[in-house]
């Protein structure tokens, strides 16, 4: 699972998910972290075994500072998450994960490519510059899930025309736009986006 958004509980219930192999945090901003307390219920369902958590060192330090009790326990309550550094390459289950750091204003976020030997999925949220490492990470994907905040430029997020340009350059087979603000009307996007590009929505499932 990527990030612990404030509505994580509702998303897990809707997807009928009661356990995860790991949680990977892209960065420490509130909209990506503030559902973290609901991981405690997953820990209980695992008979008290903490959930595996991974984050880049800077993000990990920020998370541990803000949510110390989640990772180290407090007042007799055990830790909910066993946190570790997110490496450039790792394997979880049968999925190989490659990570690149993405400029996101004054900080960075973790961008990821997931591969199982047959299919590839890229996840790119919260960035404002496309680096050479990111281009290598996101080239020739089966599915690219990518931030497209709005139509107008933004200082810390990509805007729609930028993303469509990268889609043309990097060549994913399918692209789902996420992290959109209120100005991005779903039906208007469906009518005007090119083939292979679609707006994401809650509960969307994509098959490569």
In short:
This protein is an alpha/beta fold and 208 residues long.
Please give a structural write-up.
This protein is α/β, with parallel strands linked by helices. It folds into 2 domains: 1-86, no CATH class; 88-199, 4-Layer Sandwich (Metallo-beta-lactamase, Chain A). Helices cover 28% and strands 25% of the residues. It contains 8 helices and 10 strands. It has helices spanning 8-14, 30-33, 39-45, 57-66, 68-72, 132-138, 160-170, 186-192; strands at residues 23-24, 51-55, 81-85, 89-92, 95-104, 107-115, 120-124, 143-147, 174-178, 197-199. The strands form 2 sheets. The chain has a 7-stranded mixed β-sheet. A 3-stranded parallel β-sheet has the order 1-2-3. A hairpin with a 2-residue loop joins strand 5 and strand 6 (107-115). The chain is globular, with a radius of gyration of 17 Å. The model has no long low-confidence stretch (mean pLDDT 97). One of its GO terms (molecular function) is phosphoribosyl 1,2-cyclic phosphate phosphodiesterase activity. Residues 2-180 form the Metallo-beta-lactamase domain. It comes from Sphingomonas xinjiangensis. It is an enzyme of class 3 (hydrolase). This is Phosphoribosyl 1,2-cyclic phosphate phosphodiesterase.
